[in-house]
Amino acid sequence: MSRYARAPRSRLGPWSLLRSVAGQAFVLQLLLTLVLVAAAVVAVAVDAHKHSTLDARRRSLAVAETLAHSPGMARAISDDKPTPQLESHAEATRKGSGVDSVVVFDTHGIRLTHPETPLIGKRIVGPAGLVRDELNGKTITETFRASQGPSVVSAVPVTKADGVFIGGVSVGVKVGNVNSAVDRRLPLLLGSGAGALALATGGTALMSGRVRRQTRGLGTVEMRRMYEHHDAVLHSVREGVLVLAEDGRLLLVNDEARELLRLAPDAEGRHIGELGLEPHLAELLASGRRVTDEVHSCGDRLLVVNMRSTDRAGDPTGSVVTLRDTTALRVLSGRAEEARERLKLLSDAGVRISSSLELTGTAEQLVDVAVPRFADIVTVELLEPVLRGEEPEPPYEPLAPHRTAVGGIPPEAPVFRVGERVVYASATPQSRAVKAGAAVLQTDPTSTAEWPAGYGAEARYLLGRGVHSLITVPLRFRGVTLGLATFWRTRRGEPFDEADLAIAGELAVRTAVCVDNARRYAREHAMVAALQRTLLPSGLPDQDAVEVASRYLPAQGAVGGSWFDVIPLPGARVALVAGKVPGHGVHAAATMGRLRTAVQNFSALDVSPDEVISHLDELVTRLDLEHDQDAHGSRITGAGCLYAIHDSVSGRCTMARAGDPGIVLTRPDGTVHIPAMPASPPLGHGGEPFEAVGLSLPAASRLVLYTNGLLQGPGRTAGTGLDLLRRALEAEPDLGPDETCRSLFDTVLPARPSDDVALLVARTRLLDPENVAEWAVPFDSAAVAPIRATCARTLRAWGLEDAVCTAELVISELITNALRYGTPPVRIRLLRGRDLICEVSDGSSTSPHLRRAATTDEGGRGLFLIAQFAQRWGTRYTPYGKVIWAETALDGR
Questions:
Q1: Residue 37 phi, psi (nearest 5)
Q2: How far apart, in whole angstroms, are the C-alpha atoms of residue 535 and residue 541?
């Protein structure tokens, strides 16, 4: 506790209170109260006596005037015997008015009335001057000391109607008789004074106690020391303090506030508006409002202002203001803020630049982060091998990078065009930075010799915008230069400095890592895309069953597993396939190729679509079992496939499906139909049989096979996409396959598909019945010759004379083979399309085999001859047996 907090008590007991300020104030106030009460009593007494004399004079004069001017007074004095008439009236007046004597006298001074009867008839007595004035008819009021004490006498003349003086009335009053009323009230006056003294003493004691509590019993010496201490603290503290009166006058100011505000020596006592302060600061200080940590400028300083009212009861009796200089703190804060912004810039750059796996996207992200937070103009240029996914090798001269991204330049400016190759001379900062492998800072790039060769327009443009500094930094990763980034600042900002050089280096390091990742990704993506291109059909085969077109759109940033195929089948038929492998990347592409190959092999068996899907399901299950034994294997269960066979002779289309790929049918009249196919699980799940659905299609019907990437995307479900697909096909029923693919990609395809897209559109054809000939063959070897002759006539009727010889040989061997090894019924069918197809069917399921006959064998050369003369041949099985077919090329093919 401070030594000023409480004064020690003296052994003198209560007398020690006189040493404190409160005790001294109590004694002083008590003495003053006694003096004031005594003075008040004396003043009241003196005033009472003064008013008693004045009252006696007024009373005596009033009575004398009233009696002298009363009716009949002049007549009674003029009567021969006036005393009897006046005596009773005078006595009544004396007693009624409370005066001591009422005397009526004549012009000779003889008393006509008197309170004492013996004195009636005698001359009036008194001071000579007073008597003389009375006898001269004057109105007088005089105070004189008589034998009974101080008295007041008033005389008023009595005159006739014509103004002749005939006598007078004299009224006397003793002052002592009037003072007696005052003397009677004097005890009350003294009692009131004593009460006032008691109240004043009690109030003084209470105030003294409060002062004693507030001053903690400090004496004058301690109070003086405490004041000196507080004054020293007030003027030595490093914070400005001002005390203002309610009217805005400056009552107190310490040295710090005087220095901060640059106040004059005589500032105290003047109004705040007269101190020469800045208007906004003077207005604030004069307002008297509550202020907390408001920052205001005062010259070249920044002051933090706090202001509070000095009245704790709430009345605005004044205010106290504190000022704190934060100029240096603001400078440090500005530097800290600048450092924070730079750290945030680097943090944002790390997040945004790494968000893209594309070379162009990575460069653009650097530009977006750096403009305008770090530079006004930014260019990013990559070396040519990087764009191909390769790793550049030194030397890098001549430096001719590819401009990949530009920021801070209006699109209409004829400079810094993306996609151009920029050739830098060896003296340019860019060449020096690449050669040194470090950033280069230049604060005055005004020499046109330092600009890229042939880029005078850029030099003029940048100089016109007031470019005053640049930083160019190579994009290096693992010691390999991938490109360079150049940062420019114009007249709008401060020139680059060494700190900015470090920031540019950090941005370049982060960008180089992401560019190298994007380069590797681009290379791997190109390899996977190349693999996928080799696994997808490079072209669609020629056949007579359908007119077909296709489209494939890879997923954004990845290679998917969607695929399609068109497989010609014997008998003027064609297989249409659409499939989807889950996942992306090399595994999806390779699996897609395996499944496509498997489907082609299963198609060679010429079995129904549901059998093809069943074989494919078994294959996927077997492959996944192999992958389960490999810790790094990837399962392909969940793949989908849709397989459809269209027969151009019968117009029959049979289809089966596993998983998601869909099909939509458009008939020639424009109606759109979605075939009702039994729901089947994706490949590899097993457990349920696959069912085929058959439809009869007229010519010019359109079959649209697709994967779900065509329908689904962000914010869109498969159902919504299917509705769009239906409406698009209904709107344009006459489009060909290629136009249909283009229309669906324009109208149905989402802006950002969720997966890769495979689309196959086929318009059906029907073989003209005139190009189909069919006969039943008797089960007799003698029937071979007649049937061969009939077929030859048909071929000549079709205008195929050049094919008759080969066709007769093929037909003869096929029929002979069926009659020898088959069972009835036997039939033959000729189909004329782009090739001549000869089909011989029988009721057996035995499979013929091609073999080489020995020179001594009499038979076994039939299939060998067919294989030599036919373009293709094979066997397919039907529910009622088998068909052996052979295709012979026409028109010299």
A1: -65, -40
A2: 15
